[in-house]
Amino acid sequence: MSIKGTVIGKIVKSAKMKWDNLDAREAEEFIEGVTSAEQASSEVTYGSEIKAINAIAQIAHLSQEETNDLINEVYTNKNISKELSEKINNSINGENKYKNILKIVSYIHDEWVKNNSNNFLSRPKDYQFVDYRLLPYKEILSDFLFLQPILEASGISIEDDKLREEFLNIQNGYLIDEKILSHKVLVERLMLASQFYPSLQGLTTKVNDKDVLIDDLLKNEDIAEKMAKQIEEQIGKQFDEQNEEQIRHQRTDMHTHLNGVLPGKVMSDLALNLLEMEIDPKSLEIDNSVDVFNKMQEAYKNRKKIVDELIKNGHGNDLLRAIAKEYKKHGIDYVEMTTDFEILKRIKEKKIDILAIEKETGVSLRFLLGLNRNNLPLEVFNNKEIQNLFVDNPYLVGIDIMRI
To answer: What are φ and ψ of residue 88, in 5° steps?
Structure first.
């Protein structure tokens, strides 16, 4: 029986397109030659769809009978039955939807590690034998391709941007919690083997035709060093062994301008959703033209209009929350931003609740008052309103003399 049109057929199609670089037509032609789900599982997916189903069963609390039914439906149907779909939806959808999906991905990855231990040291991807939170996002997608068609057949939609954002947030938190802030620390963690990544416990690989525990192999600093370098390369981090440079390029951002923090698309979405203003994101970005300075001035002018309208219409909390989330996404947890009197006045009056935003995001926000360098007579500094901004205000930490 052909697997064309079934859930397993979609999994095989995705796998062949990703691994063998087939186009959609070629992948469809390949599927025509696969005569059974069992053949697909043994020759293409190597049982990874079963790992995905078992992980779904754990999260959805499926009985063994229901799990077997789900396997059968993945192998024979286009969609999952209503009863099973409802159970899966109720367990995965909701506020923690993408966290739940990534839990399943982590299970698939851990099972792959256990089933492929004989490949340790025999392939150029030893970096894969680690906790999934040390993997690059592209590897997460490699595991996710076994899961996505099953979720979609159960009526669960997935937005790649949200999945990626959730994974990066999880990865950031993991690196910070584990204090993996330098190359040296990463090597030390890897040398702990199963104490650091429990899925390695008891796993062996062949060395000179002998079974050797991966735990014992990772005690060799050269092997851990090699893996660490692969991880650094794959997830785009730069380490400095001598200076204990942080795994994230920076954890702080100092002396930046509030109006310039958010990507153009995020700013235009805020304008549309909160102000019903349609703004072309490109008008908020700086391109690489020879007229870059004028482009920058124009972009900042357009950005200021949006910021001013957001503040005037009482959306200061939404703006600062979006900024804090953007910094969190990049692993930055302390920032000092230059802004103007109106925003600082609302912070002082607690109309913008910085403390709540900091608690929600884990990002500390501090501010500098921007003043025009061409308009700085003494009366500016003697201005009572400006002086009052600094009184009992832990969020205002200085002044930025600017060319406005």
So the answer is: -65, -45
